[in-house]
Amino acid sequence: MGPVRLGLDIGATKTLGLVLADDGVIKAEVREPTEPGADGVVRTAAKVVDALRDAVDEPWTGPVGVGVPGLVDVERGAVKHAVNLGLDGDWVPLGDLLGDRLGAQVVVENDVNVASLGAAALSGEDDLVYLSIGTGLAAGLVLDGRLRRGVHGAAGEIGHVPVDPMGVYCQCGQRGCLETVASGSAIAAAWPSTDLPPAQALFAAAQAGDEKAIAVRDRFAVGVAEAIRVLSLAVDPRTIVVGGGVAQLGDQLRAVVAAALLDQAASSPFLASLDLAGRLRVVPADRPVAAVGAALLGR
Q1: pLDDT digit string, tens, across residues 51-71
Q2: Which InterPro entries did the record assign (predicted)?
Q3: Residues 6 or more apart from 251 whose CB is under 8 A from it?
Q4: Residue 203 has pLDDT above 50, yes or no
Q5: Between the N and C ends of the chain, which has fewer C-beta atoms within 10 Å?
Q6: Is 226 part of any domain?
């Protein structure tokens, strides 16, 4: 049996770790609730890695890869503005802190970037945009097989492109950003739910014929389509993959976004020729793309 790699996807509610073989087979997975704060994040991650080591009696090579929300300085392995993790002050040297705890090298990357790497690996595509629709809205870019971070690490921050000068204020300080209409938090604000996740509740109500739900769902779909259109016109990827928490809706999500893309292209032969709806894919619910991408970081 060949060597394996370890990858962690650290989120606000859970940390998912996995062991990945060189042939792409996932050998083990472990989930733990994420404790907030620097000490809590390190403690949770270490617990997951210890459990993975116990689960797989095989040598592992290379660094432990970590995907984490927020602004990431890849060279230093430092994280900032990961508010949902309780890391909202100065730079936190997460790579060093976790490396000292594990006795191993740790490579840290933004969670959407590692998810785009995972999506590329699992799909076999080397030219794609990964659009993550979770609490916020952001994209990862894998272009000709290479991850594009940007000079300031801001490549793919599509959620903060303003589209409505009269829209609500965004947490970034601008007004009417795409994230305010095309994200999980936007759905939660427009369609609050106590018994189901808001996106599931909204789509179920729309499916049942609720006119208000249909209007909210369709406005959300138009916002996602606008994000895809902007990204596609900027970098023209071969494939557009939608992931993140809202992507748990699966083909329901793909269908309404594809319909919005087709509607936008109906009056534009140019847009129609690009076939954006035909390039659209949704990550299957059982594919842990972020953890897979994290495991590939040291490659």
Answers
A1: 999 999 877 777 999 999 988
A2: ATPase_NBD, ROK
A3: 282
A4: yes
A5: N
A6: yes
Query: β-strands 128-133, 239-243: how paired?
Result: parallel
| CA 207 – CA 212 distance, rounded (Å) | 11
Are 99 and 130 contained in the same domain? no
Quick one: CA dihedral 212, 213, 216, 217, positive or negative? negative
**For 174, phi and psi rounded to 5 degrees?**
-95, 175
pLDDT tens figures, 1-17:
467 899 999 998 899 99
Least Cα distance to 138 among 169, 171, 95, 108 occurs for 171
- Cα 279 from Cα 94, distance rounded (Å): 37
Q: Quick: pLDDT tens for 43-53.
A: 999 999 999 99
Structure-block tokens of residue 102: 């594990």
Q: Which amino acid is at 189?
A: A
Q: Whole domain around residue 94: which residue ranges?
A: 4-104
| Residues 98 and 135 placed together within one structural domain of the fold | no
